[in-house]
Write a structure and sequence with these properties.
Helix content is 48%, strand content 9%. The protein is α/β, with parallel strands linked by helices. The chain has a six-stranded parallel β-sheet. It has a three-stranded parallel β-sheet with strand order 1-2-3, covered by helices on one side. Strand 2, helix 4 and strand 3 form a beta-alpha-beta unit. Helix 2 (33-42) crosses helix 13, helix 3 crosses helix 10 and helix 11 (354-362) runs antiparallel to helix 12 (366-377). The longest helix has 23 residues, at 5-27. The structure holds D-allose and zinc ion (ZN) (3 copies). One zinc ion is lined by residues 215, 248, 250-251, 283, 323. This is L-rhamnose isomerase / sugar isomerase.
């Protein structure tokens, strides 16, 4: 289904007065609001193809209906999100789940929805039908060169699909590791992985980036071969200038200071991008900002600080992606909430008084430094985010409109309850 522009305009008209009064009030508190609005309009977040249906856990899956059944419908769903919020103009594909049958048709469809293709994701954590070698004991780290070769070839194939679609990056997330002490030799596993990554790296086009995603544990529970940002940074540094670290917010051990990791990776020029989500315990893949919104703000605070320092472009120089899984919510509503939470955290970080913060730090004025950050975090910037959306042609209240237009019911009518396998 496609949403008509006039429906969005009509919907906005109904709540415009209330919006205006909230926005006028906020304007009086924010000096640079026009430049913030233009930054918000430019800022786009990629939606993962695997988050458009209900996920599930190993205990079960409760599909909600109307889920996309193929790549075309996944693109359509991201198109719906983008139409509503004008902030999700990219889709991140996963191979082999999203192998395009006809590149031209897929490119045209994405264009029709105003979408581009963000990072391509490879998959060497499952065995596919008809595959010769098994990834049970790892892929790029494997003791058997034949398994490593199969995994390398797969990644190169993913790059080729990406080139056809105009993507510019490959995300490598490996499940490689071990479940028990003694199962593998850490250094051999690292060296095998590095050698395999080098071969993949050699196939990257000049203008591509490789993102190396780390994760503390799961599915391996004793060691993970790209287990933390240190290991990811080691690989990325050894590989070369096109390799970067990718930070998935759910991939740390409890209480890790993610904002500090982000700050240092930025300083080293090795931060590639994000998989935004939230978590309480582990790789929970919950809605961004739903559990720890202050952490999300602090991450953006470091991002703005570091990106300004390095004269980076907020909109284009990093990969802004969501990685999510929805067990109990409508996936489209959940993704709309995630994008909104990210935009809010970004805005709050943009309004931090950086000169005052620097001064407080130089004077060791700890209380003042905290006041400055929390002043921004506790400012209700939602009218600013809504104003940016309005000016870009989106809906003032995306979820409200999604419900009012009964989008999910329409999708169920169109697609029924048949479901596809979704990601992790
Ligand atoms: C796995 O835990 C990682 O978060 C991956 O980034 C992602 O979930 C996967 O590539 C999708 O299958
Ligand atoms: Zn991820
Ligand atoms: Zn994950
Ligand atoms: Zn995750």
């Amino acid at each position: 289904m496609k949403l008509k522009d006039n429906l969005i305009a009509e919907h906005n008209q109904r709540s415009i007065d209330l919006h205006r009064s909230k926005f006028e009030f906020l304007k009086t508190q924010i000096i640079d609001f026009e430049s913030i609005i233009s930054k918000l309009i430019d800022f786009q977040i990629a939606i993962p193809s695997w988050a458009l249906g209900n996920g599930g856990t190993r205990f079960g899956r409760f599909p909600g209906g109307g889920e996309p059944r193929n790549l075309e419908e996944k693109i359509e769903d991201v198109g719906l999100i983008h139409k509503l919020n004008q902030s999700g103009n990219a889709i991140s594909l996963h191979i082999p789940w999203d192998i395009p049958k006809d590149y031209q048709a897929i490119r045209d469809l994405a264009k029709e929805h105003g979408l581009r293709f963000d990072a391509m994701n490879s998959n060497t954590f499952q065995d596919q039908k008809g595959q010769e070698e098994s990834y049970k004991y790892g892929s790029l780290q494997h003791v058997d060169p034949a398994v490593r070769k199969q995994a390398i070839d797969h990644n190169i194939e993913v790059i080729k699909h990406g080139i056809e679609l105009g993507s510019k990056s490959l995300t490598v997330w490996l499940a490689d590791g071990s479940c028990f002490p003694g199962q593998l030799n850490f250094r051999t596993a690292f060296q095998n992985t590095l050698a395999s990554l080098r071969e993949i790296y050699a196939s990257l086009p000049e203008d591509w980036k490789m993102f190396i995603e780390y994760k503390a544990y799961e599915p391996n529970f004793y060691s993970t071969t790209v287990g933390d940002w240190g290991q990811s940074l080691l690989y990325a540094s050894k590989l070369g200038p096109k390799a970067f670290t990718l930070v998935d917010l759910g991939h740390h051990l409890p209480n890790a200071n993610i904002e500090q990791i982000v700050s240092l990776l930025l300083m080293e020029g090795k931060l590639g991008g994000f998989h935004f989500n939230d978590s309480k315990y582990g790789d929970d893949d919950l809605t961004a900002g739903s559990i720890k919104p202050y952490q999300l703000f602090l991450i953006f605070n470091e991002l703005i600080e570091g990106m300004n320092d390095r004269k980076m472009n907020h909109a284009n120089d990093l990969g802004w992606m969501i990685d999510a899984s929805h067990n109990v919510k409508d996936p489209l509503e959940d993704l709309l909430q995630s994008v909104e939470a990210i935009m809010i955290a970004y805005t709050q970080a943009l309004i931090v008084d950086r000169a005052a913060l620097k001064e407080a730090q130089l004077k060791n004025d700890v209380a003042r430094a905290q006041e400055i950050l929390q002043d921004s975090f506790r400012t209700d910037v939602r009218p600013l985010v809504a104003e940016a959306r309005l000016r870009a042609g989106g809906a003032l209240d995306p979820i409200g409109l999604f419900r009012k237009l009964e989008v999910r019911q329409e999708l169920i009518k169109e697609r029924g309850f048949e479901t596809v396998a979704t990601g992790l």
